Amino acid sequence: MKWKGRRQSDNVEDRRGMSGSGKVIAGGGIIGIIILLLNIFGGENAKMITPMLEQINQSQSTTPTEQRELTAEEKEMGEFVATVFADTEDVWIKIFNENNLGTYQQPKMVLFSGAVETACGGASSASGPFYCPGDQKVYMDLTFFEELRTRFGAKGGDFAIAYVIAHEVGHHVQTILGTSGKVRKLQQSRSDLEANKLSVCLELQADFYGGLWAHYNQKYLEEGDIEEALSAAHAVGDDAIQSKMQGHVVPDSFTHGTSEQRMKWFMKGFKTGDIQLGDTFAEEL
């Protein structure tokens, strides 16, 4: 992706030089795996998962804040992320204006290492990237992408990161358009299976919005970028994760969609560039 020398967002808070701040959910091991399985590309699920984990793991620890200098590579990654985030701001302002959706309220992004406190509760690196509707912020520990490549077989590359950012910003769009609130309300009166299906639709729509962002951002794309995004989307499909982690898949437990679905909806957004065609709920339920 062509990004150097371009505008960077002012809405990015980089906390990576701070370690050990706030409450850290103790335990790791299977708890970390649970978080990863349930909350990878977490959308708003972090809000629901954190209380469960705190019940499972009563012991929490608080450690003093330590600060360190970021490496040159980390600084460059921060600049890249801030550039991509700026692109999402520009694109969604344009989409909202073109479709008479009102004023686009820009989210913020927090880069962190290890653990972080949010309006949705505490989270660790194992949570994967997620969006918290309570403070309208995207949270990312960038070490996640190495895990995505080495453990789950994604190709890697800078556009895989851009896809994830665009997906999480998609959850912000769902929040300010009211989609997320409607889905959560519906889930309260549905069975677990039906609630899971609604969650899948929410996640696939965020993938569609990620593709929509890429459609509007094509002038900055380079050869291989879309393939990197599709590889990441494939790696985080429910079926791919369950097969990798437990050796079999349980479709009724899916909350984010299969690899095929995630790639399909990203590409639909990318090819059409039409926000009106992103009704995953009509097609998938």
TrEMBL record:
Compartments reported by the entry: Membrane
GO terms for cellular component: membrane
Signal peptide: none
Record's bilayer topology term: Single-pass membrane protein
Keyword Heme carried by entry: no
Primary site of residence: membrane
Keyword Transmembrane recorded: yes
Transmembrane segments: 21-42
Keyword vocabulary terms for this entry: Membrane, Transmembrane, Transmembrane helix
Pfam family, one: Zn_peptidase
Protein name stated in the entry: Metalloprotease
Organismal lineage: Bacteria, Pseudomonadati, Bacteroidota, Flavobacteriia, Flavobacteriales
